[in-house]
Design goal:
The protein contains 8 helices and 6 strands. It is of the alpha/beta class. It starts with a helix and ends with a strand. Bound molecules: zinc ion (ZN) (2 copies). The site of one zinc ion has 8 residues, from loops.
């Protein structure tokens, strides 16, 4: 029944057969060889901070990561938040193309370590009803299938819709956000290795605040992953 419904939806709204990055026609929805090569070149040329995954650092860690919290091991990112790669994330997040989740997750999957549970960064319910979907949860569902790791959407919840706070230091921003998230069903993460997921890492504040909340609730270790990280 589920399959029939899927086929019917596919008939009404067929998934475009393109490369989602350069929009070239393809036999199916897939990232073309040129774009994969471009991504590999970017990864090699720019290098990444070994802690937050920000692009533009060929050795060691970036200036922001000299101080790094003990509750988050590191952040892994598949692509720079720049040019065509930035556009495809904006398509996924703001231009209502939730069907990009699976193909974008395929870029991240080979980079990720094993974990017990995937936890997506939650949206505030108001933001969720505006957008219609949580892009991090869609990504999490796709990765959950690809990596056979269960995803839990009901553990980390967002209780406050927070404004941007660009003028504060990273530590001050984490303190400022600390009550924006709560953990439910703590028993499900006690002693577990968590993979925390978001779409983009810019300042790192959101990921770190979520990691801190999960750590305080008893998680054994936390690694985060984002589709993209900034390019400096
Ligand atoms: Zn392409
Ligand atoms: Zn860094």
């Amino acid at each position: 029944m589920k399959n029939l419904w899927k086929q019917f939806l596919e008939f009404l709204l067929p998934t475009p057969r393109i490369c989602p990055i350069c929009h070239k026609q393809q036999s199916q929805l897939m990232i073309c060889e040129n774009c994969l090569r471009l991504l590999e070149t970017k990864r090699q040329n720019h290098g990444q901070c070994q802690r937050c995954g920000t692009f533009g650092y060929c050795a060691g860690v970036c200036d922001n990561c000299r101080v790094w919290p003990n509750y988050l091991q590191r952040n892994i990112s598949a692509m720079p938040y720049d040019g065509l790669f930035r556009e495809v994330i904006l398509d996924f997040k703001h231009r209502h193309r939730p069907w990009l989740a699976n193909i974008l997750a395929e870029l991240l999957a080979p980079l990720l370590p094993q974990a017990d549970i995937i936890i997506p960064v939650p949206l505030h319910p108001i933001r969720l009803s505006e957008r219609g979907y949580n892009q991090s949860a869609l990504l999490g569902a796709a990765l959950s299938k690809q990596l056979s790791i269960p995803m839990h959407e009901d553990i980390l919840l967002r209780t406050r819709n927070t404004p941007h706070q660009t003028n504060l230091s990273r530590t001050a921003r984490i303190d400022n956000l600390h009550d924006a998230f709560i953990v439910r069903h703590q028993e499900n993460i006690k002693g577990k290795q968590l993979l925390l997921l978001d779409d983009v890492l810019t300042t790192g504040t959101t990921i770190m605040t979520c990691a801190k909340t999960l750590h305080q609730a008893g998680a054994a270790s936390i690694i985060s992953a984002t589709l993209a990280s900034g390019l400096r």
